[in-house]
Amino acid sequence: MMTLIQTYGSMLIRALGQTILLTGLSLIFAMIIGMIFGLMNVGHNRVLNLIGTIYVDAVRGVPLIVLAYFIYFGIPAGIQSIGITGFRMNALQAGTIALSMNCGAYMAEIIRAGIQSVDRGQMEAGRSLGLSYSAGMALIVVPQAIRTMIPSIINQFIITLKDSSILSVIGFPELVNVGKTIMGNTMKCLETWAIVGIMYMVVIITLSKVSKKIERRVNRGR
Fold it and tell me: In angstroms, rounded to a whole number, what is the distance separating the alpha carbons of residues 36 and 31?
């Protein structure tokens, strides 16, 4: 195992960096997507409710690997079929879109549940003071909801980090993909996947500890 680490350690560290980069970018876009569709699902407009529900149900109903294949292979093929040649997406772009869409659907549910956990009297109090619905949501409801959403958001970050391993199927150089390369070069299956597993474990346990610490602080601050 030490020989593998000495030989391929830098490659594995770069792959871990790529994994965290992909996960971080996806989480940022997923937060935007989740906020948009989460607010759609708690609003009073039935059309927006329907759009939000369709997006969440449709994306959560499609396996991530199918979504990644569709975006990486299907969309460029579809665009080229209508006469626009030369359109391509690299693995980082396709992977970020796929993970963002997937994570965004779950974020929408986290945000919806967080907003609905705030007592309705808070919004009513804001409206009685002359605030519009959107102002009351932005200034009163959402800030309170965020406090309850933080642990779930960090947990979703952990899930997304693990889900990034699926994107090895489109050639993105994350940990699993690099692990396959190392295993193919050395034929050391046990040692290779043990190292990859340990690297994931260290990052995920660290994030879990951070999540619990933040949750304790949020609970004390209530």
Answer: 9
Structure tokens at 80: 């080229």
Q: Residue 84: what are its φ and ψ, rounded to 5°?
A: -95, 100
Exposed, middle or buried, 21 (CB in 10 Å: 0-12/13-18/19+)? middle
pTM for this prediction: 0.85
- Alpha helices by DSSP H, listed for 91-130, are 91-116, 120-128
- CA angle at residue 159 from 7 to 179, to 5 degrees? 20
All structural domains of the chain, each given as residue ranges with its CATH number in brackets, are: 7-221 (1.10.3720.10)
Q: Are 137 and 44 in contact (CB under 8 A)?
A: no
- Residues 178 and 184: their CA atoms lie apart, in Å, by 10
Under a CB-based contact definition with an 8 Å cutoff, are residues 40 and 57 in contact? no
For 13-35, how does the pLDDT look when each residue is reduced to its tens digit (9 = 90+)? 999 999 999 999 999 999 999 98
Helix axes 189-221 and 175-186, enclosed angle (nearest 10): 160
**Residue 210: band (very low, low, confident or very high) from pLDDT cuts 50, 70, 90:** confident
DSSP state, 162? Answer: H
Q: CA-CA distance, 37 to 105, in Å (whole number)?
A: 8
Q: For 164-190, how does the pLDDT look when each residue is reduced to its tens digit (9 = 90+)?
A: 888 888 888 888 999 898 888 888 888
Please identify which residue in the block is written with the tokens 């009513």: 124
Three-state DSSP class for residue 70: helix
Element (H, E) at 28: helix 2-42
Residue 144 CA to residue 94 CA, distance in Å, equals: 34
